[in-house]
Each structure stands twice: as structure tokens, then as C-alpha cells.
From TrEMBL:
GO molecular function: DNA-binding transcription factor activity; transcription cis-regulatory region binding
Keyword Transcription: yes
Organism: Amycolatopsis rifamycinica
UniProt name for this protein: LysR family transcriptional regulator
Pfam families: HTH_1, LysR_substrate
């Protein structure tokens, strides 16, 4: 089977983001008939129905939303590959090497890096997006100058500073029984329910596990383990099961009632997002500037 091309994956993601094939085609600078043909080819390649086409417009099917979430991650990795290849081609060593967990990389770090670039336009910044456990490993091995994690830690051998606050929420699709609950969930109910979760080592996964331990109940029961917040979000929308996810990742879906937040009694689901670097090392240059910006933004 011929694999999907990147342009088709990018088109699918844009249909999910913009809500129509026409707008997605316009964003890519192609005609709508060409976009429709490209999506039909992608459906044949994957053997799945990805788009509901009606007279009122087009929307992704549940399968389409899951594939779009995975496609978003693929495209992010490809963009990182291209950035790295450009650095090698021009023989520019990264003056600032950064690693960030996914929530931070999506919602916070780009703005901080942008400010560093505004004040030092010649600064080359390399960013790796991995889970919190992998960020800490890259920092400890000296592969990056500064890391950003969302796991509660502890982080032996690393210095840390608070840079932001985040809140996790339990979400279900509007048709789920929990969406009609009048009373909050109990921690024990959440622990006993199979959930769509991130992979081990993810900050979101570890935060949930820690919150359940503090509540005196068992660990998470995984239903699906997925490698990105967008994949988790889209799996929940598709009806796979409930999930606990950063509220930053579901703002649009909650506002549009595609997802419903479910209160949980007796659990603290807020978390501190932190910068990490080797203990005993004084940050200098662009790394120090980035840390200062990050800390200031969270104060």
C-alpha cells in the first residue's frame, strides 16, 4: 500500500482546524476540487472514511479526527527534521538547544523563543519536542542547554524553576453518560474506569498517577496509550473513552460542546510546569535569557 503524502496529511489537519474543505484548500493555495480528490485518495490509501461531505459543508468523521491528530504529530516531526537539516546544510551549530514536553512546546515555548529571537535575531535555536522523562534525560546528558517539563518530578541532578501553571480536566464526548452527571466523579470511579492516556513518561500521565495516589486510590487503568495530546483528544471525540488532559488542549472543543469537562471530587489536578537544567551549572547567554523570559511570563 502506498503511504499517504505529507500534503494530504496537512490538508486533513487543516480541514479539522478550519472546518471545511474549501477553507483548507484556500490555506494551501489549491482548488477545492483538487483538495477533494486528494482527500478521496487518502481515504482509499488508508481504507477509512475520513470526511463527511454534505450540502451544508464537510466535517471529519470520528476516524478522520483520530487520523488528523496523528497526522499533526507526523507533520511536527517533519518540520523538526527540516529545521535540523537546514542547520546541518548551513553548518550552523545551535546556539541554544532546548527540549520541551508537548504541552509546553505547543502553548508556551514558541512565544518565549520568539522573544529571544527578537532580542537576538542571529541566535539559532534548536527545539526538541518529547515527553517530560525524555526532556530530563536530554538535559542530564548535556544534549540540550535547557528543558521544560510538566511532570511533578522529583528531578534528581537537575535544578528547576517554576515557569507556568496548568490544569488537567476529565473530558468526555457530549453523548457520554458522565456528561449528564449532576454530582462530581469520585477519585475511585476515575481510577476504576479505563481511560485514554498518554504514554508512560508523559507529564500528563505522571500528574494523573500522582493525583490518584494522593487520593488514596489505584493507578490509572489504560484503555488506549497514545503519544500526543491531539491524538488523545481526537480519540475521546471519536468515543473511545474518557481522558484526563490539559484544559489548554481542549478549549475549542469544550466551547463547541464536542467535549464536556467532568468535575472530580477529592483530586487536585493542577500542576506546575518547570524549567530544568543541570544542577550546579550557571546558565549564561541565550539559555539564561530564555529562562528569564519563561519565569517572568509565569509570575
Amino acid at each position: 500500500m502506498t503511504g499517504p503524502d505529507l500534503d494530504s496529511l496537512r490538508l486533513l489537519v487543516l480541514v479539522d482546524d478550519l472546518g471545511s474543505i474549501g477553507q483548507a484548500a484556500g490555506a494551501l493555495g489549491i482548488a477545492q476540487p483538487s483538495a477533494s480528490k486528494r482527500l478521496s485518495t487518502l481515504e482509499r490509501q488508508l481504507g477509512l472514511s475520513l470526511v463527511d461531505r454534505t450540502r451544508r459543508g464537510s466535517a471529519l468523521t470520528p476516524d478522520g479526527r483520530v487520523i488528523a491528530g496523528w497526522a499533526h504529530r507526523v507533520l511536527t516531526e517533519v518540520d523538526g527534521l527540516r529545521t535540523g537539516a537546514e542547520a546541518l546544510r548551513t553548518q550552523r551549530g545551535a546556539q541554544l538547544r532546548v527540549a520541551a514536553s508537548m504541552t509546553l512546546a505547543e502553548h508556551f515555548v514558541p512565544a518565549w523563543i520568539g522573544e529571544v529571537k527578537r532580542t537576538g535575531p542571529d541566535t539559532y535555536v534548536g527545539l526538541e519536542v518529547v515527553n517530560s522523562e525524555q526532556v530530563a534525560d536530554l538535559v542530564a546528558r548535556g544534549r540540550v542547554d535547557l528543558g521544560f517539563v510538566e511532570s511533578p518530578g522529583p528531578w534528581p541532578g537537575l535544578a528547576t524553576r517554576r515557569v507556568a501553571q496548568d490544569r488537567l480536566v476529565v473530558v468526555v464526548p457530549a453523548g457520554h453518560a458522565w456528561a449528564r452527571r449532576r454530582r462530581p466523579l469520585r477519585a475511585a470511579e476515575l481510577a476504576a474506569t479505563p481511560l485514554v492516556v498518554r504514554e508512560p513518561g508523559s507529564g500528563t500521565r505522571e500528574t494523573v498517577e500522582a493525583a490518584l495516589r494522593r487520593a488514596g486510590v489505584g493507578p490509572v487503568t489504560p484503555l488506549l496509550e497514545l503519544g500526543s495530546a491531539s491524538a488523545v483528544r481526537n480519540a475521546v471525540i471519536a468515543g473511545a473513552g474518557p481522558a484526563v488532559i490539559s484544559d489548554l488542549d481542549v478549549v475549542r472543543e469544550v466551547a463547541g460542546r464536542r467535549l464536556v469537562p467532568v468535575p472530580v471530587a477529592g483530586m487536585e489536578l493542577s500542576r506546575v510546569l518547570r524549567a530544568v537544567w543541570p544542577a550546579g551549572r550557571r546558565l549564561t547567554g541565550p539559555a539564561a535569557d530564555l529562562l528569564t523570559l519563561a519565569v517572568k511570563s509565569g509570575s
